[in-house]
Amino acid sequence: xxSSHRHVLGVEREPIGRxxxxxxxxxxxxxxxxxxxxxxxxxxxxxxxxxHGAAEVARVAIDAGATVAAxxxxxxxxxxxxxxxxTDDPGLRPAMRVSAVVVATKxxxxxxxxxxxxxxRATARxxxxxxxxxxxDGLDRAAGNVASLLLxxxxxxxxxxxxxxxxxxxxxxxxxxxxxxxxxxxxPAAGEPHxxxxxxxxxxxxxxxxSVFGRHLPRSYA
Length: 222
Hints:
Elements: E1 19-23, H1 25-36, E2 42-44, H2 46-50, H3 54-63, E3 68-70, E4 96-108, E5 113-114, E6 120-121, E7 126-131, E8 148-151, E9 154-159, E10 167-172, E11 181-185, H4 195-202, H5 206-216, E12 219-221
Parallel strand pairs: 1-12, 2-3
Antiparallel strand pairs: 1-4, 4-7, 4-11, 5-6, 7-10, 8-9, 8-11, 9-10
């Protein structure tokens, strides 16, 4: 724990936990319907549907009434990543959910450091949860000591650097057990962080966030 050559939480090998990316095709269908009431809809499937899966999104959007599916030159998504619920429009539902599970827990004392380089040291005795998702899975390294994940209904801050396959959440006086789900972003209607909240925390456009996760994580569809 005290050596920068040790992995997070002092384990000798970083465990790889279950993580996942789920695309809610019902949200794509809903968003297409909302947008159709405002005018013709072009289903923008740039960057593999901004990580949502171009073929699946195009099929659902066209079935729901979109005029055409196309790749555009709008690299950042712009007003078009609306189909995916990436804007601040309250009538649209975000379609992507990213989560991972707790793979270990530990309590550390004041002064002990976390993760490579020990960029975080506890100011008091605290509980930690190791979550099995990292930069190899598309989670931006900028999230270390900045962003939060939703764990058991509470936003918990990432402490220390994001490692290749893991990150650490500070629980303070809270607790977690192996297998608990930590949500990066998902459905705000279910009390989960919006992808825009996560993107704002790490200083990235939402369409970039979903595109990167879509390139790294296996997708499932609901």
